[in-house]
């Protein structure tokens, strides 16, 4: 009798576990975000992606031709899975006509320069301007873009030696932030990606909030147009 009672209790417990898992699965949200990784040739874009996605670094990458892809899956929290589709766009594309196709539907970007080659920093503003003119968020604003000062394990050239000047530069040029990174030493890659994803999620929430308000406003305008008050009654006066 006791054994039968324990079996019943176990079956009830398993039933509630299954219901709980089903409920958690139903509440789980998934996002797919397209992220651009752009900048001059040889700045380490491919190395950054390989380090971030595969935790791997090699000194012997061949130059990316055209565009390459990688997928990073993040279990952001217990209710959210984020898939980042990372587009590794070749530096030699340099603002060509095809970049408009590559940029389409992107919601975030990294622009990468090499701290040991000042010329790659000089080109950053051109990449940023090209990005801003070819892709925008639904409200017309620029997609969040983070500047990566890569190869920070090497000797630095230019204003990257001054964090204050870099802060001012990023604010002036409309960057969402900047990080010193090193794919070789695995410095700040995860932190930079997390910062960008946070900004993308914030934009998503703001957009959803705006859509919700627009829907409510449309419903209210529709009611008013049809002579309904907020309680569902008729506001039209009777002329009889």
Automatic annotation (TrEMBL):
Tell me one Pfam family matched here. Ras
Kindly report the protein's main subcellular placement as a broad class. Answer: membrane
Q: Where is the signal peptide?
A: 1-22
The organism sits in which domain of life?
Eukaryota
Q: What does this protein do?
A: The small GTPases Rab are key regulators in vesicle trafficking.
Q: Which family does it belong to?
A: Belongs to the small GTPase superfamily. Rab family.
Q: What is this protein called?
A: Ras-related protein Rab
The gene behind this protein is LOC113518330
